[in-house]
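Exam revision sheet. Question 4 asks you to relate a sequence to its structure. Input first:
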Amino acid sequence: MVALPAAAQETYENAKLAGTDLNGTARYVGMGGAMEALGADLSTISTNPAGIGLYRHSAAAVSGGLVTQGSVPGYTNGDKTHASFDQGGFVYSMRGRNNSFLNLAFNYSKSRNFDFILGAAGRLNNASSNKLTYQKWRNGAFDNGDGAYSQVDHLNANYFNMKKDSANYPATDYMLSREHTGYIGNYDFNISGNIQDRVYLGVTFGIKDVHYTHDGWYNETLNTYPIYYTDHRHIYGTGFDVTAGVIVRPIETSPFRFGIYVKTPTWYDLTTENYSTIGDGKNQYAVNDNDPNESYDYKITTPWKFGFSLGHTVGNYLALGATYEYADYSSMKTRINDGVDYYWDEWGYYDGVETSHKDAEMNRHTSQTLKGVSTLKLGAEVKPVKDFAIRFGYNYVSPMYEKSGVKGFLQNGNPVYSNGIYYSSTADYTNWKATNRFTFGLGYNVQKWNFDLAYQYSCQKGDFYPFASYIENTATASPEDNIPTSCEVKNNRSQLLLTIGYNF
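Answer key, structure tokens:
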């Protein structure tokens, strides 16, 4: 057997990959994504695949635009505006007997756009990251192996002398600047159709392509001098899932319809690489000076997702849609890679099997830190004239994070003993709150061509913590308590999206 490093990822890093943005065609975005019962849009391929079954002719579309972040602190670094290719796909429709169709479709879309600049600053009042490492060491958190010993602890332990009380250096304030870039690309393959224009069925097999990078620095001002932490992390890999859905028009003489769909978990196989340092401007230490790039493979499994939707049209001038989705992110799982067992098979070939097991401690932390998320989508399309459309939409996405969530610690105050903590290279975390999205769109048809434009404004607030609090188990406040101050951060973004489509 050839052993590989045993590793799993940490809850807050995993959560970045689990959620989805509102993205796709400009018509879909302009209506707030509330098209899971209305259908006949390529973006429904990854939410309710039965929506592709409403196509009565073949079509193709491509979409792209600009994403701009607002409310960026002046001390941060990074580009606030990025161009983005967001969607491209087609559907091939084949007419059958009795007014039925069989459709085949492929669509690429960007389910997550990670372009985001995070800036945070505040007072520390004699708390510090190195003090947290010292307290964990002094109270025996590292006695059971490396499970609760993070890369930040490694940096602090090597820069400061953790075996002396004088290593407990308090800080007065902190500042963080970090730029996140990358995306998750969806490659969806669909087969769908309808039965006598009353029941629509569809199945989509999806492949995901992950590219996530962040670069940043964090500094604490000690009583005498500043300490700088730098971190570069790159996560990449693939995943797959399956989505099935149905749309039913229960009354033959009415266009009213409802849809139901379910998405399996996404099974991810990922690799993460990072390089982290600590220094004071003169001296600098890395996680591993001989091989500074830490890299390992790991697995995560996102939760099941369930959706219910309603749709109705009035003549050819009004369309209304509503969708509700639910996913329990507290059930997300991580796995530790054991390694690869190599053996001679019965045919005389040298082969290998990768094995892994559940990271029970990290899964327990995830169940206490994340929670179920409800998403409500509302949308409307009005056509004042035949070939011109005006669209409106709104989304509400409930918080994924518990207010009491803490990175690296369970609710009982005990450290999380997991390889996901050992490979954690940043101490900060953010408990993000609810997301509100407001959308507006325009559409114009010219013979077989359609041109659609959408604008989306998304706003979200969160509570940022530079590191976890550590409170001594005493009846009164202790000088050993290490409690950082949190600050409010924002993720407000604007998207301008253009879609060009052709029907054939």
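Marking note for examiners. Confidence is low (pLDDT under 50) at residues 1-6.
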